[in-house]
Amino acid sequence: VATSSIELQKAIMENEIPMLSKMLMDYGFIKKPLNAVLRKGKEHYFCIARYNDYLKNICDHPDKNEELIAALKKVRPDLYCFDLDKAKNIPPRVKARMNVKGNCSNCPQWVGCRYYQHIADASVLYDIDFQVTNHNMYLMNLMMGSKLLLPCNYCIIDESHKLAETA
């Protein structure tokens, strides 16, 4: 399922798929709940290496960044904020400094990276009924020869009138 926004992805994952799953189970069409995975771009996920670098930089000027340092230590994004969209109390400019970005092949934190483990897990889970993503990732997947998303036989394009603009 390719959508145009995070809000639609969230609604599909939290409301529509569970409702469809319940309905299909209630009527005996399926025996177990539907399984879905949300596939977002890497800029939506936390990067421990970039976070540590950012924290080190702002800690070099504690007088100027006292509130931000305290807020980050309270929130502990290194432990609790893998999906940065769920971290409502972290400003977007700060999220942009600690998200996964660019080519990670030379990253010292690559082994044990939560983002790459998430991608690996989502790529081998063959029990997935739905992948939910945005138009950008769907189109990028087509351009890359289906390397970002699991192969599928069908695609639902939600908000398809926005797909041409994205392309």
What layout of secondary structure does this protein have?
Blueprint: E1 2-3, H1 6-26, E2 36-39, H2 48-59, H3 62-75, H4 77-80, H5 92-95, H6 114-124, E3 130-134, H7 135-143, H8 163-166
Parallel strand pairs: 1-3, 2-3
Structural overview:
This protein is mainly alpha-helical. Helices cover 47% and strands 7% of the residues. It has helices at residues 6-26, 48-59, 62-75, 77-80, 92-95, 114-124, 135-143, 163-166; strands spanning 2-3, 36-39, 130-134. It has a three-stranded parallel sheet with strand order 1-3-2. The mean pLDDT is 84.
How many distinct helices?
8
Computed Rg: 19 Å
Largest sheet: 3 strands, parallel
- The strands making up the biggest β-sheet line up spatially as 1-3-2
What is the number of beta strands? 3
Order of helices and strands: EHEHHHHHEHH
Residue runs with pLDDT of under 50 for 5 or more positions: none
Task: State the share of residues found in helices, binned by percent.
Answer: 40-55%
Mean pLDDT across all amino acids: 84
Q: How many angstroms does the end-to-end distance come to? A: 16 Å
Strand content: 5-15%
Shape: elongated
Q: Which secondary-structure class do the elements indicate?
A: mainly alpha
Task: Name a few traits of the molecule.
7% strand, 167 residues, 3-stranded parallel sheet
How would you summarize this macromolecular structure in one to three sentences?
By secondary structure, this protein is mainly α. It is built from eight helices and three strands; from the N terminus they run E-H-E-H-H-H-H-H-E-H-H.
